[in-house]
């Protein structure tokens, strides 16, 4: 398992479009996921300990962001041939178990992850209402273990600011996670 850190936010970069199948049987496009005040795109998977450590907080924070007009979507881009825990059927089970309030999509070609520049799980891309990138940081202090209760909610606070002002915080702490499991092409 390779641990990677996300790059610095490229403020203003436009959110790429996509059309990907969801665990709910529907094909989702970027514009189906956007809220009136922004969009949070999360690259996650099932097997990564960094993601497992924050799943409940992802659900909590995305539910609260919905009330602020920020839509959310999660994309799984790992190659499930090498990681069966990331299979589409397993994605369905995890989404049901954790009651994901956002679409959970599979990027089988891995092209969407490459277009976004995603490198790890979790990797967060927070956009304003104009779909301009404003956040590329961590959820909170969690790593492979869940951080203690009461830590600063970096992602939530940043996206709340984006919803209210259209701009993300200047200082952002990178997310850390497992490398995306790319196919050998």
From TrEMBL:
<protein>
    <submittedName>
        <fullName>Thioredoxin family protein</fullName>
    </submittedName>
</protein>
<dbReference type="Pfam" id="PF00578">
    <property type="entry name" value="AhpC-TSA"/>
</dbReference>
<dbReference type="GO" id="GO:0016491">
    <property type="term" value="F:oxidoreductase activity"/>
</dbReference>
<dbReference type="GO" id="GO:0016209">
    <property type="term" value="F:antioxidant activity"/>
</dbReference>
<dbReference type="InterPro" id="IPR047262">
    <property type="entry name" value="PRX-like1"/>
</dbReference>
<feature type="domain" description="Thioredoxin">
    <location>
        <begin position="9"/>
        <end position="144"/>
    </location>
</feature>
<dbReference type="InterPro" id="IPR013766">
    <property type="entry name" value="Thioredoxin_domain"/>
</dbReference>
<dbReference type="InterPro" id="IPR036249">
    <property type="entry name" value="Thioredoxin-like_sf"/>
</dbReference>
<dbReference type="InterPro" id="IPR000866">
    <property type="entry name" value="AhpC/TSA"/>
</dbReference>
């Amino acid at each position: 398992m390779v641990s990677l850190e996300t790059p610095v936010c490229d403020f203003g970069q436009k959110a790429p479009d996509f059309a990907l199948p969801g665990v709910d049987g529907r094909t989702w496009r970027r514009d189906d996921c956007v809220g009136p005040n922004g969009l949070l795109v999360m690259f996650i998977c099932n097997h990564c300990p960094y993601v497992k450590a924050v799943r409940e907080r992802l659900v909590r924070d995305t539910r609260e962001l919905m009330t602020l007009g920020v839509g959310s979507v999660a994309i799984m881009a790992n190659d499930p041939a090498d990681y069966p825990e990331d299979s589409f059927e397993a994605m369905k089970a995890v989404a049901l178990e954790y009651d994901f309030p956002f679409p959970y999509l599979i990027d089988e070609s891995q092209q969407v992850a490459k277009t976004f520049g995603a490198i790890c799980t979790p990797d967060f891309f927070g956009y304003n209402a104009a779909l301009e990138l404003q956040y590329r940081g961590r959820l909170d202090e969690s790593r492979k273990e869940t951080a203690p209760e009461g830590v600063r909610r970096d992602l939530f606070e940043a996206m709340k600011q984006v919803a209210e002002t259209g701009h993300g915080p200047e200082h952002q702490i990178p997310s850390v996670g497992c490398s995306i499991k790319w196919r050998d092409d």
